[in-house]
Design brief:
By secondary structure, this protein is mainly α. 96% of the residues lie in helices and 0% in strands.
Amino acid sequence: MSQTITRLFSEQQRRISGLFILFHAEADHQWGKTNYVTLSVQNCTLK
């Protein structure tokens, strides 16, 4: 019985960390986009 619980728990953990990684990648992507836009705007105003 405890074997099954352990296996289920580790699967749950894997799924959670997978989501966490996805979330971080998405956040980084969004931040990168905003940063890029900000830099582009700054370049335009400098010229």
